[in-house]
Amino acid sequence: MTIENTITQMTNVSKKFSKIQALDSIDLKINAGQIIGLLGANGSGKSTLLRHIIGLYLPDKGQCTTFQADAAKLGPKELARIGYVHQEGELLDWMTVKQLINYVSAYYKTWNKELQDRYIKDFDISLSDRVGSLSPGQRQKVSILLAIAFEPELLILDEPASALDPIARSQFLDLLLQIIQDPTRTIIISSHILSDVEKVIDHAIIMRKGQILCDCSFDQLREKYTRFTLTSLNGPLPTTLPFKNTITAQTSTSKAIITVQDYTQEQLEDIAKALNCEIEIKPLSLDELYKIVVS
Amino acid sequence: MTILTANLKHLYQKRSNWFLGLFSAATAFPIATAITETSTINRTGNFSYPILWIFYVSMFIASLPIDVLTKPFSYCLPDHTKIPRNFLFYIGLSISFLWSLSFIFYPDLNLGKTILACLSAFSTFTIFYWLSVWFVFKLRNWSIAFALIPLIMIGNQLINLGAIIVLAIVEAPLIMIPLGAAVNILAWHHWANPNMPRKYCTQLWMGTFDAWNTKKMFKYKQLKLAEKDKKKPNLNKINSSVENFFISRIGRAEIGSLGQHIWGGFYKTFCLLISQYRQDWIRFLMLMLPILCFLCYMQGSVKNIIFAMSGLMVIYMNLWIHSSLLVTSGRKQRFYSTLTIAAVTTIWATVLVTSFAIITQLLATVMPPLTVKGHELIFDALNINYSVTPLVMMPLMFTINLFCYKKPMLAMFLAMIIFQLFFISSIVGTLTIMNRHIQITPLHMIIMIPFAWAIFIATLRYICMRTCLTK
């Protein structure tokens, strides 16, 4: 991987808010074209990490670079390459949606009017409404529009779908799927709705208490943990099953549902054969993988 | 635990209520002292002070059941129709009774008349109590009732309102007692209305000290905007020519240049103000003229509040430093655009107060002396030399704004200290520090200008370059 491909890099970044360690010695490298799911419970440090990337927060310790520049010193040229949907969706409330779009678009050379119009139509955004009187879901739609319409190289979405209704969420996911078609675009999406994120991400970062528990590709994560059902073909299952690194196991006399770590499919099939059992391997969902990693 | 005690838990669970309790106690003490001291001297309106105390303290008290009623679970509470009423009655009758005992100290009354006066005072106090409670239950943001304080004070000054009420209590107990009883019966029925929890459940109602609850205030503003939009769709909207002017300048400036961000800052800060000049500015001037006249007729330094007022107005002004909306604004851009906005706002305020001073100078040539209650009041124009005050006051207020952006209450507290110490009491006359009398003159003000701006710029630079930039 060449250095030009690195969009953002954090080296030993720590951040403390009074007594709370929001980030604890974070080392992270995000490359161009990655679609990253940033996962974690409330207060795990996701938003803090994202705000360091765009330079809104300054680390107490360590260094954070974005587009090869110190994140704290990002200028308009670098920032114009970043789209950011803020969790709280701060907007200018007294403007109408149209005025707000006119205002924000004036800052960007790359503003795509066609994309803007399509998004407004698909998401049923009323341009004449005052921003301050929009519902939380409508506000979030406007925030998303403002973040994507200039086709940023790095798109940071901090809980973008939390206030959207199921239909708008599905539309938003469709839009994301279109955006990720561009292989040069990097997206970092932080969300609690893991079933949504699962459809788009190719890399997962799982955080807990300011630390990164897992930073790997989604495929690697899925290969690392496997859940399978073992059914005895003849008589009861042995009392002790020969699986090392067992994470969870629910067993009855002739059936067991087991989650293990670091086994290939072939290895599991060989063991099942030796035990005279039938094995059914089911891929784990991101939700299940998240629970396993965090627990 | 009964529901009533659950309601009462608010009294000690909320920190703001501790403050309120201390405030009530601290204000009750001097009132009680004033009443007992006056009793031996003459009959004055001091006996009416408890009314003001009851009126404002009751607002906070009434906001407690409102807090509960607006909660989604209020329906599920047993006896939910009676509890707010009981709570309000217990407290209202108790404080009215305690304050009515102050009439024991009323001079020159025999025992029978004293008892009647106490009963009459009790009835009258409950009337004001229920009026205050009604305000809270009627107004979504009842804190605006505090705007009545200056009116009450002026009323008291001009027509001796307090003395009139006290006279009514003492001299007409047979009117005040039945009147109070009628108000209490009405209140008893009104607050037992079974539809009340339905009316308030999940409604946004501003509670004790909610003016500093940013999330609630945000929701409240949203609601007010939606209500205004429904009534008058064109009110508080940006004029299209103003929008075009600013947007074309932002668009024409080089992408990412400081100019672009400065124009953007101007647009965000001033567009609404400029757009509304036809409605708000004319209304503002129409309002200011009588205020200026009133202040100029008042003796002493109180009129100089005009020079310092602009400083207070910027204490909560959004300087956009902590904005997360537009990330093309780097730290440097935020620094320069904020500095420019602050400078322009200050110049604007200085021009405005200078205009006021000039207007009063012109009015001084035509305004006649007035005689009020035997006192001759002369129209004394504002001293134009003090028009430099905003140049000192505003950077200091901007500095407080920057430091206390997360603690608006502290910001207001600090601003009031500066406002009070520096400008109101000392702008004309002397400032006494450690037994030394310092005459604050316009020259002092001019000398202070660079210092005030140096403090502001250093703070702004520190915040922009060295701190986290989100709320």
Task: Write structural notes for this entry.
The complex is a heterodimer of chains A (295) and B (471). In chain A, 30% of the residues lie in helices and 31% in strands. In chain A, the strands form three sheets. In chain A, strands 6-7-8-3-9-10 form a six-stranded mixed sheet, with helices on both faces. Chain A has a four-stranded antiparallel sheet with strand order 2-1-4-5, covered by helices on one side. With 295 residues, chain A is α/β, with parallel strands linked by helices. Chain A is elongated, with a radius of gyration of 22 Å. In chain B, a hairpin with a 2-residue loop joins strand 1 (370-372) and strand 2 (375-377). Chain B is built from 19 helices and four strands. The longest helix of chain B is centred in the last third of the chain and has 34 residues, at 331-364. Chain B is 67% helix and 3% strand. With 471 residues, chain B is an all-alpha fold. Chain B has helices at 3-8, 10-13, 15-38, 49-69, 83-100, 111-138, 148-159, 161-171, 173-190, 196-200, 214-231, 240-252, 258-275, 277-297, 305-313, 331-364, 389-403, 408-424, 442-466; strands at residues 370-372, 375-377, 430-433, 436-439. Chain B starts with a helix and ends in a 5-residue tail after the last helix. Chain B has a two-stranded antiparallel ribbon with strand order 1-2. The chains are: A alpha/beta (295), B mainly alpha (471). At the A-B interface, helix 2 and helix 3 of A face helix 11, helix 12, helix 13 and helix 16 of B.
* Side-by-side strand order of the widest sheet of chain A: 6-7-8-3-9-10
Mean pLDDT of chain A: 90
* Helicity of chain B, as a percent range: 55-70%
Helix run count of chain B:
19
Gyration radius from CA atoms of chain B, angstroms: 26 Å
Described by the principal axes of the CA atoms, the overall outline of chain B is globular
Q: How many helix segments of chain A?
A: 10
For the largest interface, the chains and their residue counts are:
A-B, 38 and 38 residues
Which strand order spans the largest sheet of chain B, edge to edge or round the barrel?
1-2
Shape of chain A, please? elongated
**In this structure, how is the largest beta sheet of chain A organized?**
6 strands, mixed
Flag low-confidence runs of chain A.
none
Compute the CA-based radius of gyration of chain A.
22 Å
On the 0-100 scale, what is the average pLDDT of chain B? 82
Q: Give the CA-CA distance, first to last residue of chain A.
A: 32 Å
Total number of strands of chain A: 14
How far apart, in Å, are the first and last alpha carbons of chain B?
A: 39 Å
What is the H/E string of chain A? EEEHEEHEHHHEHEHEEHEEEHEH
Structural class of chain B: mainly alpha
Low-confidence stretches of chain B: none
Residues in β-strands, percent of chain A: 25-35%
